[in-house]
Write a structure and sequence with these properties.
- One of its GO terms (molecular function) is 4-hydroxy-3-methylbut-2-enyl diphosphate reductase activity.
- Pfam families: PNP_UDP_1.
- Its EC number is 1.17.7.4.
- By secondary structure, this protein is mainly alpha-helical.
- The chain has one domain (6-90).
- Helix content is 47%, strand content 7%.
- The protein contains 3 helices and 2 strands, in the order E-H-E-H-H.
- The protein has a two-stranded parallel ribbon with strand order 1-2.
- Helix 1 links the parallel strand 1 (6-8) and strand 2 (28-30).
- The radius of gyration is 15 Å and the shape is globular.
Length: 91
């Protein structure tokens, strides 16, 4: 597990740009989280949990993405209850 800054990009980020974000301290890049957070009313707490299937050495458009995607689904199934408890604690 890694905790740290999450960058939202407007496109799929490839290797060279990914290295730039990583050097800046970012832990992950997605295309949705900031947009979802911006659509919420002010004052609503936001948490983003990302399970990454592509990264350095594991490009997105490769056969191994399917296997990593299935592993990611298992991780999300295990972490979902923790997010539900977090949301309930805020209510």
């Amino acid at each position: 597990m890694h905790v740290g800054p999450l960058v939202t990009a407007d496109r799929i980020v490839r290797e060279a740009e990914r290295r730039v974000w990583a050097a800046d301290g970012s832990r992950a890049v997605d295309m949705e989280s900031a947009h979802v957070a911006a659509a919420l009313p002010d004052g609503i707490p936001v948490a983003a949990l990302r399970v990454i299937v592509d990264g350095p050495g594991h490009p997105l458009l490769r056969p191994g993405t399917v296997t990593r995607g299935l592993a990611a689904r298992r991780v999300l199934a295990r972490t979902g209850p923790a997010l539900e408890r977090w949301a309930a604690a805020l209510a």
